[in-house]
Write a structure and sequence with these properties.
Blueprint lengths: L3 H11 L7 H39 L6 E4 L4 E8 L2 E7 L2 E6 L3 E6 L3
């Protein structure tokens, strides 16, 4: 058979290591998975959580006069915030309403 798991167990049986006793056997099998979960947490999950929290703080702090860029690339000035809806002036006489989540960047506060 060419199944890698079968070959691993067959090799272990030939070396007389078929029965590892107690906690040491389980720990040696689980240790790579624990390390992998820790690596994913510290390099993927934690930074994403930090970025999400930072963006939420930015969105909660939106106020009239802030210069922003939307997710679509439009640049404008906040004219008002009503709950989750932001009114943005793109040019003289051109106001659009968009949801807060569509704001990707704040350039100038209150300017």
């Amino acid at each position: 058979m060419s199944n890698p798991i079968y070959l691993l167990f067959a090799q272990q049986q030939q070396q007389g290591g078929g029965q590892q006793g107690g906690l040491g056997g389980w720990l040696s099998m689980l240790l790579p998975f624990i390390v992998l979960v820790a690596v994913f947490y510290f390099f993927i999950i934690m930074p994403q959580s930090r970025e999400k929290k930072k963006k939420q703080q930015m969105l909660n702090a939106l106020a009239k006069g802030d210069r922003i860029t939307t997710a679509g690339g439009l640049v404008g000035q906040v004219q008002g915030v009503d709950g989750d809806i932001v009114t943005v002036r793109l040019a003289d006489g051109v106001n659009v309403k968009l949801e807060k989540w569509a704001v990707s960047k704040v350039h100038d506060k209150g300017g």
